[in-house]
Amino acid sequence: MLKVVGASWYKTKIGSLIVLTAIILSLGALFIIDMERPTFDGTFCATVYWTKMSGYRVEFWGQQNDLASVPLGVARICYKDTIFENGWSQIEIETNHAYPDRIQATGAGILEGALTWKSIYHQWTNTINAHCSKDDDAVDFCAWVRKTLLKSYESVRKQAELNADHDHYWYQIQLFYYQLEGLEFGWRKGIKRSALKRSRLEIPPEDFLLMNAGADLRDLRIYYDRVIMGRPSPANNDVRSSMLLNIHEENGIIKLQMGHSAAKSYSLMLRIVKKYKFNYHFSRDHKSHVIPGSNIIFSGYPGVLASTDDFYKISGRHGHLIVAGVGIVNRNSELWHQLDLRMNVILSARAMAANRLAYNGRSWSRINGKRSWNGGKAVAHI
C-alpha cells in the first residue's frame, strides 16, 4: 500500500513540474513576442581579418543597419543593392590604419569582390563579354587591348615596385593594383560561398584589368584604328558628357554650383555609389602621415575601383575637394603615333592616386597628368 501511495505522489510531482515548465515557457514566448525586433533594409555587411600565419579571413555578418556596428578588423564593408528600387546600389568600405597599407588595400578589394560578385559578373557580361563577341573586328580589338593592357600592367607594377619607397605617386599606384588583385580574389571567394559555387561562372583574370581601364578604351580604340589598322575611327566622336559651373552671390554669400552628367549605354546601368574611407599613408613607413584624401565618394560600377563617370567628392585632413571631368577629342592624328603604350598608367589608377594625394585642384591636375595615355579629359576642381 505504501508503495502505491509513494508512486502516486512521485507521479504527481513530475506532473506538476511539467505544468510549471509549460507555464514558464508560455510566459517566455509571450515576452519574446512583445520584444521589439530589429528591422533590416537589405544592407549586408562583412569584415576581413588578417594574420601572418593564416592570411585573410572574411566574416560575413548578414544583414546589418550601420557600418559602425560592424567589427573593423582590417576592413569592413556594407553593401545594399537597390537597383530595382531606384537604379543604384551603395557600398561603404572602411579600413583600419593600424594595418600596413598593402594589407588594407588587398582586404578592401577582397570585401568588395566577395559581396558584389553577382553584380560584377553581370557588369562583365553586359559590357566586356558582350562587346568582345559582337563581331570579328571586336574580337580582334579585344585581343589586342588585353595584350596591350597586360604588358602595360607588368611594366607599371615593376616601376611602382622600384619607386614606391621614395615617390608618393607610385606608392598609391601600387596600392591601387593591390586592391584590384584583392577584388578578383574576393570575387572568386564570393562565387564559392554562393549557391552557384558549382556553376561555370568565370571572368578571365585580365578582364578585371580591362573593366578598370574602361575610361581609357575610347582612346585605345582610336589608337588601334588609326595606328594599328590605319583607318579612321568612329570612336573619335564618342564623347557624351557635360559639365556646368555657376558662381553667383546670394544674400551677400558667394555660392558655387556644379552640374555634371555622363551619358552611358543601357548596358552600363548597374550603378553604384561608393564610399571609400581608406586610411593609407604617404609611404610604406607606418609613421608617415595619413593621405589628405582618405574619404572618397564617387559614382561607379561593379568591379571598377574608380569613377568612370569622372565624378568624385573627396575629404580628409585638409578640407574638401570635388573633382569632375568630361571627355575631350584629340583630332591631331600625328599625336597618336607618338604614344608609347608600354608604360602608361590607366586613368582609374591615376585618378585615385591624385584623389588621395592632392591638397587642391592644381596638385590634383599635376598628379593625374603623370603617365597618361593622351590626357583625354577636361577636369574641374572645386
Automatic annotation (TrEMBL):
<protein>
    <recommendedName>
        <fullName>Phospholipase B-like</fullName>
        <ecNumber>3.1.1.-</ecNumber>
    </recommendedName>
</protein>
<dbReference type="InterPro" id="IPR007000">
    <property type="entry name" value="PLipase_B-like"/>
</dbReference>
<dbReference type="GO" id="GO:0005576">
    <property type="term" value="C:extracellular region"/>
</dbReference>
<keyword id="KW-0812">Transmembrane</keyword>
<comment type="function">
    <text>Putative phospholipase.</text>
</comment>
<feature type="transmembrane region" description="Helical">
    <location>
        <begin position="14"/>
        <end position="33"/>
    </location>
</feature>
<dbReference type="GO" id="GO:0009395">
    <property type="term" value="P:phospholipid catabolic process"/>
</dbReference>
<keyword id="KW-0325">Glycoprotein</keyword>
<keyword id="KW-0443">Lipid metabolism</keyword>
<keyword id="KW-1133">Transmembrane helix</keyword>
<keyword id="KW-0732">Signal</keyword>
<dbReference type="Pfam" id="PF04916">
    <property type="entry name" value="Phospholip_B"/>
</dbReference>
<keyword id="KW-0442">Lipid degradation</keyword>
<keyword id="KW-0472">Membrane</keyword>
<keyword id="KW-0378">Hydrolase</keyword>
<dbReference type="GO" id="GO:0004620">
    <property type="term" value="F:phospholipase activity"/>
</dbReference>
<comment type="similarity">
    <text>Belongs to the phospholipase B-like family.</text>
</comment>
